[in-house]
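Usage

Read records sequentially. Each one opens with the input sequence:
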Amino acid sequence: AKDDIPVAGFAGDSFTFGSGGTGGPALSYAMLCGFALGCRVIPDGVGGTGWSTTGADSPLTRLGTTGANALVYRIGGVNTAIAPALHVTAYGYNDAGGDMGALSAAATAYIAASQVKPVLVGPWTPAGENANLIAVKSALSAVASTTGCKFIDISDFVTSANKASIIDADNVHPLLHGHDYLGQRIAIEIRAQAIA
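and closes with the structure output:
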């Protein structure tokens, strides 16, 4: 029955929203990853955000208002609050070049407030890795280690060698095919780590 299908909550930036591809949130990497894992998906993506974002669009604020701690699904004709079976976060790209201490503190606070321990996905690398993205990856990996979260390193998913077939002309966001590729690759990593 539909009500027995697990729910996956995805939180992140413009990639999670589906920017770049022509399908919007319905064909974002998040939706396609969740579908590959056999989940119903509730994505929460806001462009330009990162772990260090403050105010209404901060990951911690959204966690309690539209994110994984606030998921409501219509079950048996009734709006029912649910905890997701899988909670994936994909922030970090927009934190590159920023304060890694602030990033670590924000990610740690988010994890502490989460009903379900999230999977931390490393920063997107639309043009391949650079020193700033490596710093973000290292900070997130350390947070995952200290909080007992799983970490997925995606630094080799998009490289300077394959980006032309995955990344849009803006040199940041995935093409529709790119969203599919990223969603499938993340699903493979989630399965490999026995997360879902």
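Summary fields computed downstream for this record:
- The CA atoms of residues 3 and 76 lie 8 Å apart.
- The first helix runs from residue 14 to 17.
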